[in-house]
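Example record

One chain of 221 residues, shown exactly as stored in the release files.
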Amino acid sequence: VKVKIPFGNKYLDAVFSVPEKTSTYGVILTHGAGGDMNLPPLLSLAAYLASHGVLCLRFTCKGLNVAYRTKAFKTVVEYLKLSDDYKLSGVFLAGRSMGSRAAASLICQLSQDDDDDDFIQGLICLSYPLHRPKLQSKLRGEDLLSLRCPVLFISGSADEMCEKQLLEGVARKMKAPKKIHWIDKANHGMAVKGRTTDDVMEEINGQVFSWLTENADLQHK
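Predicted structure tokens for this chain:
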């Protein structure tokens, strides 16, 4: 279901992937610095979640400024929260690369507000960009340390923007319940020599769904 979500004086393009049965929880998903919501990995994850009973709303926001992207994410969360068509108990925020930074930033902002009401249940970071390539001295981990909700990281062990030891070091300092799943030999774009894209996406999708079932009441009674 395609929708246009009002955002300031423009609109954000978004698409609902709706499961056959009513979903209690949903996932809001967005892309990284390049591309849009129709990148194959996002399409694949949204379709997988919907086929397993989880509503997924993915959206496009082209801004390259994290504060702007965070604002857009907040608008989408509020839109879904107030939706009459999909009455959800809670949502998980998910993003690829820069999209996951925006999601983490938003959760930190909302947790500082007095009206934080637990609508956001957790965070899924696909290829979290912990540092710029070859700039491991400047880590973008502050928001992660402030989180309290469950967090799933799925990263490539050869990601040039997220060195394995550095992410594991940040994770050890985090107060939030967290899990890291490493895709062996994958780069920042989740490409692995000798493996098909579909094969890698299948691994990612399965990991996301099994983590969701552990962290939300997704099993249909």
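Notes: Residues 2-217 form a domain with the Rossmann fold fold (CATH 3.40.50.1820).
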